[in-house]
Design a protein that fits this description.
GO terms for molecular function: carnitine O-palmitoyltransferase activity. The chain is of the alpha+beta class. It contains 25 helices and 22 strands. Helix 19 packs across helix 21 and helix 22 crosses helix 23.
Length: about 750
């Protein structure tokens, strides 16, 4: 009855003597506190908006410029070369604006214009400096004097105490590579995958495209690169993600795991309480733009645009294409448990709920024994199946009444939370523990994650946690940034009592979470069941294997004077060749966030040099010295390709955009059609680690993340994600499909090969 008691905050009764009003002081207090919090938030956002808008200068610098100009005027000097006098003559004459006032106002206007011009000059200078990428191609540990000078200039023009979005206006645009460079690098990348006749034919087709069609398509890309902030990102989001009509579960969404070795508490409600509170703190700083921007080498800023849609975001299904809906100032959370959906308010008295209060709320949900309403149990499977049936069902059955109200609650919630009734996590004594943990996070039961939300937080009954993330709005490093902050806050700042509960007192005045109501007709239930069956077939077809490799890590690899990422990529090439007996087109994701609104680029890891190394490893005629020489050559090639991709000189996003332009112009290109249809049978990605450096893993060696993963990109291929943790640990997440009889994860990871291949 707590919610009923709180609802009666305002009462009135009609009597013969008039109307008597009764106002609840407690409710008025909460209204007042909520208003204060709202205005404080607006004030902070306004202040931070000004700080970001004038960065790398500061608001106080305006006063300095005004004082300097006014002082020169009184000293009978004119630094404006007559402009102040010209401005004064343009001002209207009135009784309130004397000649002296006109001079002062003219000087202030000139000083303001001069100040803003200096800001633009600083930004332009910084943008020019950030357009230099020679530093990234220098050997590791050997910095030239010119790079040292450049780095000093970047630091000087970067200002002090930047906010999350301070550098956005100073980031350079993503350059459009030349057609010649892209075609040349493409042909080089497919050379080891084609025989002589196939390669010659591809060379002819590529050269015809370069000569006839490419110049016209390239002109449109040049135009877009100057008109739009980024010539790739909007098309990439729309055509790669939002226009896909197949299930996003497994095919698009990815997951991130909890700490590998430890669980801070085994109490499910307590872990959920701390983690949700940590997420609310992270969101508050994000809304205010107070997070420190990521910077390569601690100097070169990364684009922060993807952070904006982390919370209160959902992918909305459409018949032809989906859209991403981002809301602001939503103060609730939707929780799924045993087929029921609950709405939970995250604020009380103008503040976030405390961890102990959240634990209390989640325990109410866990203790609720009510049954799901008809059609409610598997409702979320609509987001796991094909997009068109979900879009049609949404229009027909969820556009009005209680269904619309409840669906709006889910889609506008801060994020989606599942209190899972299973226990998962890494157990060294159970070989399949990582595999089951990965499958649970990637697809679960196909109806217990809302796959359309920006991310679904999963809290298992043993206290383990994880995240399932929708991919269209952002890439894995953005989720990784948030996840590192949350795990550190949970364990080191909030903590738990000796009994495993959240710290703090229980608030008995809180209203319990409310059930979302549904009125789902039989026809809609049939659509839900059909989506569930499609999703279940997809989930059952996915095979996962997690490999926690502890024999050595980047510490030993660096002693060998090579890049850990190049080492692992070459090891994957060797493992794949031993498994399949052939090479394949290989995808490795790299980022382009040194450019405004940059997302990712592809590194084609299967090269002429890497195949030569692999073949040497399989040929007993080669000596160890010869193999090592080939390895170093292949590793250097891979590092150079990775650097090219990061600096905007990759080939795949360029070819993708040329393909989109060709379709918009109705130009048929055999070359582009073939390039875009080539399957990525080995898709790989490295999970970033310690982006924030919040925890010293030398001091806390058990406090390491388990990384995350994704499903296979091709039906007959592998998806491989890996995380290089500390000096002595590498964790792999490998996926494939049972329906491909050629693939077999156990054959990819035999123990005798794992150590030698560096897995």
């Amino acid at each position: 009855m707590a919610e009923a008691h709180q609802a009666v905050g305002f009462q009135f009764t009609v009597t013969p003597d008039g109307i008597n009003f009764h106002l609840s002081r407690e409710v008025l207090k909460h209204i007042y506190l909520s208003g204060v919090t709202s205005w404080r938030k607006r004030a902070i956002q306004f202040k931070n908006g000004i700080l970001t808008g004038v960065y790398p200068a500061s608001p106080s610098s305006w006063l300095f410029v005004v004082i300097a100009i006014m002082s020169s005027i009184y000293a009978r000097l004119d630094p404006s070369l007559g402009m102040i006098d010209s401005i004064r003559k343009m001002l209207p004459v009135s009784d309130y604006l004397t000649s002296q006032s006109q001079t002062v106002l003219s000087a202030i206007l000139f000083a303001t214009g001069l100040w803003w011009s200096l800001i633009l000059l600083l930004r332009f200078t910084l943008k020019v400096l950030l357009s230099y990428h020679g530093w990234i191609f220098e050997p590791h540990g050997k910095m030239s004097s010119s790079t040292r000078l450049w780095m000093s200039l970047v630091k000087m023009f970067s200002g002090r105490r930047p906010l999350l979005y301070s550098f956005q206006a100073s980031l350079p645009r993503l350059p459009v590579p030349s057609i010649d460079d892209t075609i040349c690098r493409y042909l080089e990348s497919v050379r080891p995958l084609l025989d002589y006749d196939q390669y010659k034919n591809m060379e002819i087709v590529a050269n015809e495209f370069k000569k006839d069609q490419a110049p016209r398509l390239q002109k449109y890309l040049w135009l877009k690169s100057w008109w739009a902030s980024n010539y790739v990102s909007d098309w990439w989001e729309e055509y790669i993600y939002l226009r896909g009509r197949s299930p996003i579960m497994v095919n698009s969404n990815f997951y991130t795991m909890d700490l590998l070795y430890m669980i801070p508490t085994h109490r499910q409600a307590a872990r959920a309480g701390n983690v949700v509170h940590a997420l609310l703190q992270y969101r508050r700083k994000l809304e205010r733009g107070e997070h420190i921007p990521m910077r390569a080498l601690g100097v070169v800023p990364m684009c922060s645009s993807q952070y904006e849609r982390m919370f209160n975001t959902a992918r909305i299904p459409g018949i032809e294409t989906d859209c991403v809906q981002h809301m602001r100032n939503r103060k609730h959370l939707v929780v799924y448990h045993r087929g029921r959906f609950f709405k939970l308010w995250l604020y009380y008295g103008g503040r976030h709920l405390l961890p102990s209060e959240l634990e209390q709320q989640f325990q109410c949900i866990l203790s609720d024994t009510s049954e799901p309403q008809p059609g409610e149990l598997k409702l979320a499977s609509l987001t796991a199946g094909n997009r068109v049936p979900w879009a049609k069902a949404r229009q027909k059955y969820f556009s009005e009444g209680v269904n619309k109200t409840s669906l709006d609650a889910i889609e506008t919630a801060a994020f989606f939370l599942t209190l899972d009734d299973e226990a998962h996590g890494y157990d060294p004594d159970r070989a399949e523990s990582m595999d089951l943990y990965a499958k649970s996070l990637l697809h679960g039961k196909c109806f217990d994650r809302w796959f359309d939300k920006s991310f679904t937080l999963v809290v298992y009954k043993n206290g383990k946690i994880g995240v399932n993330a929708e991919h269209s709005w952002a890439d894995a490093p953005i989720i990784g940034h948030m996840w590192e902050d949350i795990l550190a806050t949970d364990y080191f700042r909030l903590g738990y009592t000796e009994e495993g509960h959240c710290k703090g007192d229980i608030n008995k005045g809180l209203a319990p979470p409310s059930r979302l109501q549904w009125d789902i007709p039989k026809a809609c239930q049939e659509v839900i069941e059909h989506s569930y069956l499609i999703a279940k077939d997809l989930a059952d077809d996915v095979d996962f294997h997690g490999c926690v490799f502890e024999e050595f890590g980047k510490g030993l690899i660096k002693k060998c004077r090579t890049s850990p990422d190049a080492f692992i990529q070459l090891a994957l090439q060797l493992a794949h060749y031993r498994d399949k007996g052939e090479f394949c087109l290989t995808y490795e994701a790299s980022m382009t966030r040194m450019f405004r609104e940059g997302r990712t680029e592809t590194v084609r890891s299967c090269t002429i040099e890497s195949t030569a190394f692999v073949q040497a490893m399989e040929d007993t005629a080669y000596t160890s010295e010869q193999r090592l020489a080939l390895f170093r050559k292949a590793a250097e090639k891979h590092q150079n390709m990775y650097r090219l991709a990061m600096t905007g000189a990759g080939i795949d996003r360029h070819l993708f955009c040329l393909y989109i332009v060709s379709k918009l112009l109705d130009i048929e290109s055999p070359f582009l059609n073939q390039v875009l249809s080539e399957p990525w049978r080995l898709s790989t990605s490295q999970t970033p680690q310690q982006q924030l450096n919040l925890v010293d893993i030398q001091k806390f060696p058990k406090y390491v993340g388990a990384g995350g993963g994704f499903g296979p990109v091709a039906d007959d291929g592998y998806g491989v994600s890996y995380i290089i943790v500390g000096e002595n640990l590498i964790t792999f997440h490998v996926s494939s499909k049972y329906s491909c009889l050629e693939n077999g994860l156990p054959s990819l990871w035999p123990e005798h090969q794992a150590g030698h291949a560096g897995h």
